[in-house]
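Q: Could you fold this chain for me?
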Amino acid sequence: MEHPLKCLKCDSFRKVEYSDKVLSTDKKSLRISNAPFYKCDNCGDKVCIISEKELADIQSRYFPTMESGKNYMIDMKDLSSVLNSERKFSWYDSLDFKYDLRDYYTIPGLYRPENDGYLTPVFFDKDVLLYYNNHPDYQVKLHSFTSGNIYFKGNRLFEWGFGINRSGKIFKWLGDLESDFKDESMKSHWKRFQASNIDSDHDIYSKFYLSQNLYSSKDAFQGSDNENKIFKLKNDFDSVFKNRFGFEYSKLISNVFNQIYKHPILDERNQIFEAYLTLNKILVEGIDTKKLKEKLIDYGIQENELKGLGSLRTFSLFIEKVINYGDWYSLMTPFFVLNDLRNLHGHLNDTSFKGEYHDCAIRLGLSEKETDYKIYETLIQKLINSFDLLINLCNQ
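A: Sure. Below is the predicted structure, expressed as structure tokens.
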């Protein structure tokens, strides 16, 4: 079954938006304000969620009493009591969170027959995570770019974690929040989340949402797409590399770093460049250059040709000569970009920074005007693609 949020024109995922819907004949016009629509930000397509039958019923109910030549307006809440955004699920009042109950009724998969509002999304500013990410007893683990949880001394703080939508907003289910904060020991966390509670933007598309609201079997298997994926693929590559060549190409075990790695939470340059620093230690500085050069010599490369080559240049030559892959440059570009970004870490305020940073973005196929976070996300995806290819090459 195709997901209802999937755009019918471009296959992107849509969000819910509220705007006017006009019903009209030659001489009569009725404007429905705050009508729900599916809106695709990718292609601009916009489809009213109210069915054609419901629209026809509205027209037949109102048009007979309307005067010709006059324009009329009615609010959606007057047509549907459940879409009255001023209503609340009173049994959750003690939480004192603001939310838009229309989300529960209009976003596919959230409504349940018991009509208890459990899966109503409640939104928070992403800065709510900063306290936990910087506290020595807590850790924010992003299982993907759009899902995560907070851990206290290695244990999950919340049973079901949180989602991150396309605007970078955090959201949790209203019912989960009641469960999360019912214990007195969680009061300080409840207050912290209250302070960061923001209005809904009606977009919950994320791996978190898809995995809990299944429309097909593939929705249930929402794999990681961020650094966690890289750590797993690196370990997989370590294994297949050793099986093929008899030695480990890396001196580091990346799952150790996974326990202490800090994901950048905000689109903030210092956070992101700290992440580059750690990733470079794992993926570049950990390469066992000495063993790679020994193997290259076995394959007929002269020792003087290897003199002075660093880890990435050595590994690139290994891919070309030993693994026998001709397009080694494309495969290795994300690693070289990562290393260059790491080298820029200590020069964020230098006059040369802007030009070198823009060059990194362009090598990733991006505009020099892209945000820091977009560059970071793209680099992660490129590194994932490179590791996928390396694993396939070593398995041949």
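A (continued): The chain has a mean pLDDT of 92.
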